[in-house]
Amino acid sequence: MRNLKLILSYDGSDFSGWQVQPNVPTVQGTLASAIGRITGEKVLPQGSGRTDAGVHALAQVVTFVTESSVPTTNFPKALNAILPASVRVLEVAEMPAEFHARHSAQAKTYRYRIYRGSICPPFLARYVWHYPYSLDESAMNSAAARVTGEHDFTSFAAVDPERSRDGDTVSNVREIYASAWERFGDELIYTVRGSGFLHHMVRNMVGTFILVGKATLQADDVTRILQAQSRSAAGPTAPASGLCLVQVEY
């Protein structure tokens, strides 16, 4: 048996998220089907986390076990010939048996893009949140700094049974190593790196930071929201289109 690691990039716009579901297209299901056509095996590849419907990935890490003798150097070309153009396998490597895409992960980085120009270019629309309205971007950056460190992120977690994007866990405590907004031309980009993320956590934080930018909330309110440990204390969920999984560290 071989334990293979894939680095996967995908446009999530046309998928109902990572996790396989009946009667809807998912990244996991699409990849499983492609692997099955090559190896003749029924496998369920495991991702480093479950991205939501419409969320993208530059470097999702995936593992699966196979008895296939196909060389690792041949797998990317073979898989990419089957997969839709919106999903690309960038790299395949053989790993020790104990390596697991989700359980072995030490940190993840997500990026959220907001397009601030008055007219959003059509070729960007699938990958940004178009928000041309007035915002205090400095206040938003101050608010973003308030989530760094180890906290219970219940206030920023979706209220559903699948609270974790990283696996089955009951704890909503996570550690955020870096959290900041930067302006690049017409784009305002939020980058956050942490030990792991809950369901909708990044998008809920972005929605809250927008309220700070609108002066509906103050930057210091983020600390109060964290302490409340209640989803109703935080802002709305930002659209999925602007979010992308950038990196997974091991």
Please describe the topology of this protein:
Elements: E1 2-10, H1 27-39, E2 46-47, E3 56-66, H2 75-82, E4 87-95, E5 107-115, E6 129-130, H3 137-145, E7 149-152, E8 173-184, E9 187-194, H4 201-213, H5 221-228, E10 243-249
Parallel strand pairs: 3-10, 5-6
Antiparallel strand pairs: 1-3, 1-4, 2-3, 5-9, 5-10, 7-8, 8-9
Keywords:
5 helices, 29% strand, 250 residues, Alpha-Beta Plaits, alpha+beta, globular, ten-stranded mixed sheet, 2 domains
Structure commentary:
This protein is of the alpha+beta class. The protein has two domains: 2-95, Alpha-Beta Plaits, CATH 3.30.70.580; 107-249, Alpha-Beta Plaits, CATH 3.30.70. Helix content is 20%, strand content 29%. The chain is built from five helices and ten strands. The protein has helices at residues 27-39, 75-82, 137-145, 201-213, 221-228; strands at residues 2-10, 46-47, 56-66, 87-95, 107-115, 129-130, 149-152, 173-184, 187-194, 243-249. Strands 1, 2, 3, 4, 5, 6, 7, 8, 9 and 10 form a ten-stranded mixed β-sheet that branches. The longest helix is centred in the N-terminal third of the chain and has 13 residues, at 27-39. The chain is globular, with a radius of gyration of 19 Å. It starts with a strand and ends with a strand. The mean pLDDT is 95.
